[in-house]
Amino acid sequence: MAELQMTTIVTLAGAVLVLAALGGFAWMGASELRLRAARRTRLAPGGPTVAPPPKAGMVGEQVMGAVRRLGQQSAVRDPAKLSLLRTQLMQAGYFNREAPVIFLGVKAAAMALATAGVLLLLPLLFNGKGGFSGVVMAAAISGVAILGPDQVLKSRKRDREQEYSDGFPDLLDLLVASVEAGLSLDASVSRVTEELDRRYPNLTIHLRMLVLELRAGRARKDAWASLADRLGIDDARALSTMLRQAEEMGTSLGDTLSIFSQDMRAKRMLRAEEKALALSAKLTVPLIVFIFPCLVGALMLPAAVRVVKIFAHQ
Asked: What spatial distance separates the first Cα and last Cα of the chain, rounded to whole Å?
């Protein structure tokens, strides 16, 4: 009776997955005409240019072209999220103009591959013996397709933000030294970019973009605000606000940067002390789970062997 109930549950779960896959395909087919019309209207002459089609015979370019087309359909479906997605991709280190379209295309391709994988698992889902494993595999494939691209983007963004936070105090120290030596702020940024290239390569990319914006004639407060948006850390936003206020009030940049640099060094020291103080609490679980049983075994094993020998002789 229990096996019959389990088989019924697995069959129903497989049927639900199949119906969901077929419904997704039907929905995509029904919305294709509407998306094509909206895309033609949006990409009409005078609007954004369309990426050139891939060359025939190149498998990689053909695949990339298909991903771009899927991404354009997703972008037309929800164009309001493109600006936020572009900012997140820039914070993660993707500066290509087509990065949002490619990312949306990758997500759509992952969903399509997951749907195909679930369909291929149909024989296993309807099998009485391997039905549960089929459901688990289908759920795993669906989870990877839904959460995988976003998690990769968040992980890359988190690693970049860690490098930006580590390099920002050094950036401020070098800026203070350059400004106090007589260089202007713009020239100091150019000089500091060369010095930080080896230690913080990802941070220097944003600094080079800042230098190019300043050389192109963009206002200093707007250029630094754009840098803060690309970095996505609180220290950069605070520096941008401080420079804007110093420019509006006419205060000395050298003194302002010096005070701000001291504040950044104090924050970095506090973060280091916080990690050091949290180390003892983090080591508690490994000590209890791994080291304590080994220590107890090393102390009690000789006594246990001796007790066994005594009872054996008796």
From this structure: 55
CB 93 within 8 A of CB 160: yes
Q: Which two tokens stand for residue 103?
A: 């990312």
Structure token digits, residue 97: 């103009």
d(CA 18, CA 25): 11
Residue 48 has pLDDT above 60, yes or no: no
Look up the pTM and report it. Answer: 0.64
Instruction: Give the CB-side neighbour count of residue 233, counting CA atoms within 13 A.
Output: 21
Domain ranges of the chain: 2-157, 161-274
Tell me which DSSP letter residue 52 carries. Answer: P
pLDDT (tens digit per residue) in 158-192: 888 888 888 888 888 888 888 888 888 888 888 88
The residues, ordered by sequence, that sit 6+ positions from 202 with a Cβ below 8 Å of its Cβ are: 93, 160, 163, 164
CA nearest neighbour of 171 among 264, 39, 83:
264
Distance between CA atoms of residues 208 and 189, nearest Å: 9
DSSP 127: -
CA dist., res. 257 & res. 264, Å (int):
10
Q: How confident is the model at residue 77, as a pLDDT?
A: 60
Residue 91 per-residue DSSP state:
H
* Alpha carbons 57 and 245: distance in angstroms, whole number: 57
